[in-house]
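Per your request, structure below.
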């Protein structure tokens, strides 16, 4: 078959396949054009999920008659003032959006520049341009797209339902609205109720206002401001506390020089920063904005401009990890799931057992003897003097005292501490403490797990983990594949003081363990480590792999559920939590404590 030159219309339709994948792609290109034109308000209307009609109106600079004639030609753009593709400061620059849309749909553009006496209008139908005619418009530009893909009907078969396509459009506009809080946006259409986002004030407060409008009040309430800067690269934005998570990574919004992107490097950095806070199957909600010199990032990587390439990718990743970790550590007390209302909801009258509780069975009801609350409740004494000298007998199963207030106040009132004074241990796992303005319930295993984990990390960073040599090595029998997997990672495990070696084809000898763990079940520890290692790949950084090892070891070296604690042990655990970074969650991402304010408790009982 001989080589031939393709007709211009076919070339345009092929190009449109790269730029206009679905209605949301057309909306993205047109809204970006409006932003580049300096618009302060952009209105978007769609019908039929965008396939029947898309209308976008802005109050930007508009175009002159001559500019309008060129705008629908391929590779004609006002976004580049020279031929340097390494200094791109606008969202669009290829000059393909309007001609690509016009090649597969019916396109109508009405625009007015301040220097023109009136507006001008132009129509393009499947690549065929009409004459430019006078029109009426006060200013800016209005672009209407109808019958999308009517010139390439095969593409229509690949579109989803109108509702799905409309939701994709909303997601595109949401991302652009988050990137530019200084611009007012409105969206309307038959698929969903109209949405309007007013222009926000400049600065971090205005950005958070827009993010809260788009992502919801939950994000605004748990948002932690983050910022880091080095060598001309700035990373800033807001990250949700670990108590607000998603089942996928779609809640991570990333922007580079104002451009919404989906970059694997940035997504990986976010995952690494939250590794100590979230379970493996949960993902954080963040909105991060990376600002750097245009020459340090290449936006000319993908036709849809959703991917970028950094000149110094390592620096960008390090700044993101540092900004997020610093912010999460700074707001450590907010990271616990204490403000989401779930704890209070469990106590509301509508959630009580049918018939409610019998008030006559309350401990405060005057009877001959206090009722028993069943097994598994250990109660701290009603007074504080000699608290540290109490014996284990204070935690014997029995009825809790009717009045838990302190009759004698010591000089150092433990209730003044952030996590208060221990009052009881319930079900051999939960510590109940009293603060000045409420009460706190602590999961003793989860709390101590975080403490051990932070100790391991600090010890590793300081001078290596102190190790304890076993007089008689523990021999752990496992299948051959698991043994090979663990032995292959022996050098990484050795960094944490876990010395292992092969002991035949189906066994491992454990010769050293971290001193912090004390007496531990070597077999259970190795099985858990093998389970986690099965999910690793060589692309996972060594640091992340080591933190996984530390987290698993911390779980086995912490106070176990079911262990009855003495009063001094409970208070010591609370004090250690207060001095331990990130103590709001265990290293699996679960909350370590729940706080109930006295005012909220009084509301439950109708006192407020």
């Amino acid at each position: 078959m001989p080589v031939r030159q393709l007709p211009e219309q076919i070339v345009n339709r092929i190009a449109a396949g790269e730029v206009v994948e679905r209605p949301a792609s057309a909306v993205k290109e047109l809204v970006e054009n409006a932003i580049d034109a300096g618009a302060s308000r952009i209105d978007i209307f769609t019908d039929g999920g965008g396939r029947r009609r898309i209308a976008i109106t802005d109050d930007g600079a508009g175009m002159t008659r001559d500019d309008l004639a060129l705008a629908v030609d391929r590779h004609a753009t006002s976004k580049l003032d020279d031929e340097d593709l390494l200094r791109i400061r606008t969202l669009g620059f290829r000059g393909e959006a309007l001609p690509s849309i016009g090649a597969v749909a019916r396109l109508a553009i009405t625009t007015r520049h301040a220097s023109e006496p009136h507006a001008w209008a132009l129509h393009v139908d499947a690549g065929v341009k009409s004459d430019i005619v006078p029109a009426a418009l006060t200013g800016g530009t209005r672009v209407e797209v109808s019958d999308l893909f009517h010139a390439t009907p095969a593409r229509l078969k690949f579109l989803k339902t109108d509702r799905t396509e409309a939701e994709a459009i909303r997601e595109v506009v949401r991302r652009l609205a988050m990137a530019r809080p200084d611009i007012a946006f409105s969206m309307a259409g038959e698929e969903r109720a109209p949405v309007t986002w007013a222009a926000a004030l400049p600065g971090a407060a205005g950005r958070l206002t827009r993010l809260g409008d788009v992502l919801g009040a939950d994000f605004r309430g748990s948002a932690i401001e983050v910022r880091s800067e080095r060598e001309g690269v700035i990373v800033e934005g807001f990250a949700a506390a670990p108590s607000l998570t998603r089942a996928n990574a779609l809640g991570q919004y990333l922007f580079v020089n104002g451009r919404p992107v989906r970059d694997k490097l940035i997504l990986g950095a976010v995952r690494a920063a939250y590794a100590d806070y979230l379970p493996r199957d949960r993902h954080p909600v963040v909105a991060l904005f990376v600002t750097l010199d245009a020459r340090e990032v290449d936006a000319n990587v993908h036709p849809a401009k959703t991917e970028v390439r950094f000149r110094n990718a390592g620096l960008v990743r390090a700044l993101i990890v540092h900004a997020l970790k610093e912010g999460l550590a700074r707001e450590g007390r907010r990271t616990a799931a204490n403000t989401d209302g779930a704890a209070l909801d469990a106590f509301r009258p509508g959630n009580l057992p049918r018939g409610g509780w019998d008030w006559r069975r309350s401990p405060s009801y005057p009877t001959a003897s206090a009722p028993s609350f069943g097994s598994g409740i250990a109660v701290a004494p009603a007074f504080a003097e000699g608290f540290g000298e109490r014996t284990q007998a204070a935690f014997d199963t029995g009825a809790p005292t009717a009045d838990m207030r302190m009759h004698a106040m010591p000089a150092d009132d433990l209730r003044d501490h952030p996590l208060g004074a221990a009052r009881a241990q319930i079900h051999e796992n939960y510590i109940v403490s009293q603060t000045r303005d409420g009460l706190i319930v602590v999961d003793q295993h989860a709390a101590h797990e975080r403490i051990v984990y932070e100790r391991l990390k600090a010890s590793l960073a300081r001078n290596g983990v102190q190790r304890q040599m076993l007089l008689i090595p523990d021999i752990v029998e496992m299948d051959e594949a698991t043994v090979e997997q663990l032995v292959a990672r022996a050098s990484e495990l050795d960094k944490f003081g876990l010395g292992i070696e092969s002991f035949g084809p189906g066994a491992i000898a454990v010769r050293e363990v971290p001193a912090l763990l004390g007496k531990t079940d070597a077999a259970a520890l190795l099985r858990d480590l093998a389970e986690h290692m099965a999910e690793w790949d060589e692309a996972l950084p060594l640091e992340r792999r080591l933190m996984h090892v530390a987290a698993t070891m911390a779980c086995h070296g912490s106070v176990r559920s079911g262990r009855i604690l003495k009063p001094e042990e409970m208070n010591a655990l609370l004090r250690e939590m207060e001095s331990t970074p990130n103590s709001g969650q265990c290293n699996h991402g679960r909350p370590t404590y729940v706080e109930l304010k006295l005012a909220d408790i009084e509301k439950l009982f109708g006192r407020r």
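The two ends are 86 Å apart (CA to CA).

Regards,
D.
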